[in-house]
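Quarterly update, task 2.4: zinc ion-bound model.
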Amino acid sequence: MKCLYCGYAESKVIDSRPTEEGSSIRRRRECLHCGKRFTTYERIEEIPIMVVKKDGRREPYDGNKVLSGIRKACEKRPIPSSEVERVADDVTREVFNLLDQEITSEQIGNIIMSKLKELDDVAYVRFASVYRQFTDIDAFMKEMRLLLEEKESK
Ligand SMILES: [Zn+2]
């Protein structure tokens, strides 16, 4: 990223945050030559965050996958699609705010679950049941009980 003032090729990043709509990252940079500061907007695709999956494989973070997972969990629920997209944006923003190059699929799942919990109980349980892969009814009931206890203690 060349300096806007002197054209020097190297700069250091002072601050880094996703833009509102989550499709790019806004970076504040400081030129290593003239010391002037400038802002760049970089498309998220160019600096992929790698997701480490359970089996150890890595793949670039894909906000569309997050969106489709959330959408599936919210199917036939009285949730406007704008709300579904907002939650997906929130998740992506949170992932990028970690400023890590890698995130585990488990961390992403936990972020999604925490958002869905605030949004809709049924969507939350649906997502949790797929994500945590409840293999038996006991595990499922335990999760339900925890959810109900949390609601009651509020
Ligand atoms: Zn410069």
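Highlight for this quarter: The chain has a mean pLDDT of 83.
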